[in-house]
Amino acid sequence: MARSKKTQGPVTRRGFLKGAATAAAGAAALTGVPVTDAGAAQSTGGSPDSAPPPSPAQVERDAGNVRPPAAARPGQRAAVRPGSDLMVQVLRDLGVEYVAGNPGSSFEGLQESIINYGTPPNKMPEFITALHEESAVTMAHGYGKATGKPMCAVLHGTIGVQHAAMSIYQAYYDRTPALLLAGRDLGFIAAHSANDMAGMVRSFTKWDAQPRTLADSLTAIQRAYNEAITPPCGPTLVVLDIELQKEEARELKVPAYAAAKVTAIDVGQAREIAKGLLDAQNPRIAVGRLRTSDGVKAAVELAELVGASTSTAATQGPMSFPQRHPLCGPGASATYDYVLGLEAPAATVSLSGPALSTLLNRDTANIGFGGIAPGVSRAGAGGGTPSGRTIPIDAEASLPVIIEETRRQMTPERQRLIQERAGRHAAANTQARMEELRRALEQKRAGWDASPVSTARIYAELWPLIVNEDWILASPSGFSGGHNTQLWDHNRPYSYLGGQGAGGMGYGAPASVGAALAAKSRGRIVINVQTDGDLNYAPGVLWTAVHHQLPMLTVMHNNRAWHQELMFVEYMCGVRGRGGDRGHIGTTLREPNIDYRAMAMAYGMEGEGPISDPAKLNAALKRGLASVKRGQPYLIDVITQPR
Amino acid sequence: MRTKTRIAVVLVAPIAALVFHVAPMRAQAPASPATGDPVKGKKVYETFTCYGCHGFTGETGARVLAASRSANLASESAFLTFMRARANVAPTQPSTSMPNYSAATLPDAQAKDLYAYIRTFTSHAPPVDQIPVFGQILGEAQKPYKP
Fold first, then answer.
1. In terms of C-beta density within 10 A (0-12 exposed, 13-18 middle, 19 or more buried), how is residue A256 classed?
2. Judged by CB atoms within 8 Å, which residues 162-221 of A form the interface with B?
3. Fewest Cβ atoms nearer than 10 Å: which of A147, A609, B73, B89?
4. Three-class SS string for A555-621?
5. What's the pLDDT at A38?
6. What order of strands is seen across the sheet that includes strand A207-209?
7. Minimum mean pLDDT range among A173-177, A199-203, A215-219, B3-7
8. What is the chain A residue with the closest CA to B141?
């Protein structure tokens, strides 16, 4: 039921008002059943469609003047073993490290359990205070990409789910696991509840449930976790009624967890692929984005086993082949007679030409979901037209079977040839790498001393400072020139977390905070080269980084514009032959300029800038990294060239 | 919430293709005189947001102007022809290609001022071997791969 703000009265989103009148109206709104309580109906004083105003008692409670309802007996808790304790135990058993959320009454039971249940409380999971649900889910998105594991985000009712919707969409598009829990309180504010809470995001949520009992809630959380990590991965959502959170669990036990089973290719397929790799004179393995670091490890093992040159997606996102592994590159010859794709974009899984494929009667096979686009919006083939066979089965789960079959078919003679080939590949790839780097440096020197600072200089100055650290570049670099792809080495599964998923803005900072949550417990640091337009969607996430003392260095790529859009509008002016001097309208962030150091300081984050003199950049980066290594996030506002 | 999936990287190729289409690159360095006023041209450069693709000093961005040997910059007349020749050379979907600037948008006098300003651009970039950070990057790249 739609209601205008005027008819809702002073009931606020984060309200603590709760009483019979609103409960009755809320229930009526949901069920369509007329309010039968005459007193409640009369107290509204308005039309039957309008929500009743709060009672004096509710107002008193909202003002903090009234204590919550007392326990059943003095000294006794209202619930000895609340249902939400069991929900938290399920999360703990699943290894969920963090739950990010923006507080809301519909999950207050769950929140209380997170912060108070267990020994120690508020650990595994720890409650992470988010200032916006979009930030909370994007934190989970960033964490999921950095670890391959789901992080949890809690959402408050209909409004929290809608705030989170764009981030859920991005995680879905990015095939990133995330475990979302939405509170529902049918008896409180009608506008915050719905019969089908997940309906709003179902088309881009992998799986959802709205259990009716506490026991079902526990199994639903377990299944949601499994669905999230089962390929193709994605966000899942469980709606948890407040009554189930507060219910006395009595003797109910946490159900035994059955780990997700991921299907692998069968032995026959593995045998055929192993034969293809071993029979080929120059096999190729195209590696896309695998699920976890275990998959990356297995891909390396297979490539080394068969001496295949490999391509990698490590410069586009996480969980791919190490960029500087000796086998990574075009290899000694770019004419391949067998290509195996592992979650690879379809376009990368091809022989050097169809004629060769026909002549040699060779094959390509792409295992996984890399060439298949998620099924929402107008997405096409997801990276090009598939060639050869696409086997829509998880590559990571299949790799051990292929490796085993390859070992079975290996002979000493093949092993000798493979070693020789691997040596040739390594030499050729090293040479190619150095040539590529020299060409890149020749390009990156352009504008080296220019003011404002060139984006290439930011990445170039950063690299020697972090090369010996265990780092994560969590922000997308496409809008900042993508200089890391040429200057840096992306050798770890989490080196670069890639793009937003669906190109939505407001991603960089919260994804970096999510990555920093993962980094904090693993001794890593996070680099966030932050575009200015992107940060302004929900900058409150900077406060979260400070509050939780996250190791995150933010370097502003502050070009004072949504620069790509500026170029688009300018182009359109040209196409229409008018107003080329007005393209800045609606695309720039000037008059006034935004002071990002002041913004950071307002959220309690140390920082400096604006820096427009490139000579001052290096020292600032060193100060920033020193702070981050102490566990204190830091922001450097750098005024930059547009791209 | 807006989405912006049109990543500029995808569009680099069309930029190059369009420029090649109009005139071959790597012609002679500009030799003909610039008749416009570079001071006024600087204002045009800023107002028409040329810096968006060419950098605030002409040294960065998708197409560097400083020390460019593009045939489109070889002479004032070539530059004007180029600026006017961009209409309808590409579909109207969003693009980071060089826009068209008709005479109605950018009169000849202003275009000449702009050309005069562009001709003042010089590259101040030091050679690669004189940038210490680049030396460090090359040094790191030569180290053996460590898993």
1. exposed
2. 165-166
3. B89
4. EEEECCECHHHHHHHHHHHHHHCCCCCCCCCCCECCCCCCCHHHHHHHCCCEEEEEECCHHHHHHHH
5. 32
6. A126-129, A98-101, A152-156, A178-184, A235-241, A207-209
7. B3-7
8. A434
Query: Is the minimum CB–CB distance between B48 and chain A shorter than 8 Å?
Result: yes
Distance, CA of A482 to CA of A636 (rounded, Å):
19
Choose among A565, A580, A618: nearest Cβ to B106: A580
Name residue, tokens 């919430």. Answer: B1
Burial A156-168 (b: 16+ CB within 10 A, else e): bbbbbbebbbbbb
> Per the CB < 8 Å rule, is A448 touching B131?
yes
DSSP for A295-356, please give it: HHHHHHHHHHHHT-EEE--TTTSSSS--TTSTTBSS-S-S--SEEEEES--GGGS--S-HHH
Residue B44 Cα to chain centre, angstroms: 15
Within 10 angstroms of residue A419's Cβ, the number of other Cβ atoms is 11
C-alpha A432, offset from chain centre:
33
* B101 → closest Cβ in A448, A454, A574: A574
High-pLDDT (> 90) share of chain A, %: 76
pLDDT at A448: 96
Is the confidence at residue A632, as pLDDT, over 80? Answer: yes
φ and ψ at residue A531, rounded to 5 degrees: -75, 145
Burial class (CB in 10 A: 0-12, 13-18, 19+), A13: middle
Reported residue count of chain B is: 147
Q: Is the ipTM of this complex over 0.90?
A: no
* Cα(A374)–Cα(A550) distance, integer angstroms: 32
- Is B80:B125 a contact under the CB 8 Å cutoff? no
CA distance A206 to chain B (A): 21
3-state secondary structure (DSSP) of residue B21: helix
- Compute CA A160 distance to the chain's CA centroid, rounded to the nearest angstrom: 18
